[in-house]
Amino acid sequence: MSDTSHTSVDPRGPRFSAGITAVLLLVVVILGLGGAATAAFWLLVVLAALFAWGAFAGVARHPFGLLFKAVIRPRLSPPSELEDSRPPTFAQGVGLVVTLAGVILALFGLPLAVPIAAAAAFIAAFLNAAFGYCLGCQIYLLLVRARVIPQT
What we know:
- By secondary structure, the protein is mainly α.
- The chain has one domain.
- 69% of the residues lie in helices and 3% in strands.
- Helix 1 runs antiparallel to helix 5 (113-131), helix 2 (37-57) runs antiparallel to helix 4 (86-107) and helix 4 (86-107) runs antiparallel to helix 5 (113-131).
- InterPro entries: DUF4395 (IPR025508).
């Protein structure tokens, strides 16, 4: 679950994407707890697919990343620095695992798994969007330091 090639990205792009994702995950939580379990389930399926897109194609080719690049970034000053795309791409994989767990558990008859998985993913997306703290990126860095993931 990583970019096929190492790239650098504007760090504001993943934060922008996390903001959209956080809002959509919050909608899943509200729908799931508010009696619209079917709508919550299908929105979580869509979000899991978007996480898969980001995890396998990379954050630079994710639909929200492309939207940022085409519409938002031209209106901003250049970033002070770029960041390695591998940690946020790995974070997309973590989001995929969490949301897919909710989808699969719901298919096995545990509908409450949908808002619970969405709430867990929401916390991570909100932290990234609001504070620039990427939990999945931190997991990536810990795994690199532990030599579970190669640095190159």
